[in-house]
Amino acid sequence: MSGKRGASGGKRVGAGRKDGSTDAGTKEQRAAIGELPRAYTKQALETLVQVATKGESETARVAAAMALLDLAMGGRLRRLRARTESRSKSLQRSGGKTRSPL
After folding, report:
1. How many other β-carbons are positioned within 10 Å of the β-carbon of residue 24?
2. Domain residue ranges in the chain
3. Could you tell me which of 1, 73, 87, 90 has the fewest CB atoms within 10 Å of its CB?
4. CB distance 55 to 64 below 8 Å
5. 31, 39 in Cβ contact below 8 A?
6. Does an H or E element contain 67, and which?
7. pTM for this structure?
8. How many CB atoms lie within 10 A of CB 64?
């Protein structure tokens, strides 16, 4: 059974990453990819402000405003919103009945 996969699975001869192999991307390539979004940060923020203040739909304005607030608060707003939505779904499943805190 050498070199073949047995009925119970396990390690195959020659499988996996070879010792001493290097990453496909160089450090410079990874750094360049990481910098690309930063080049558009100012434009992205200006666009969010534009949509939040002059967006055609209320939904777009609220979403942009929430995104700006979330950025300003370091992601806390997103976590708070997720927690609130989770509690709301829990209440819907329970038919609006809440458990006593005691």
Report:
1. 6
2. 27-90
3. 1
4. yes
5. no
6. helix 58-72
7. 0.47
8. 19
Task: For residue 37, give the nearest of 25, 28, 45 by alpha carbon.
Answer: 45
Q: Per-residue DSSP letters for 18-46? A: PTT---SS-HHHHHHHHHTGGGGHHHHHH
Rg of the chain on CA atoms, in Å: 25
> Do the Cβ atoms of 52 and 61 come closer than 8 Å?
yes
Which of 63 and 30 is assigned the larger pLDDT? 63
Distance CA 83, CA 13 (A): 48
Place of tokens 């009945």: 97
pLDDT tens column, 10-54: 788 888 878 877 777 777 887 788 788 888 889 999 999 999 999
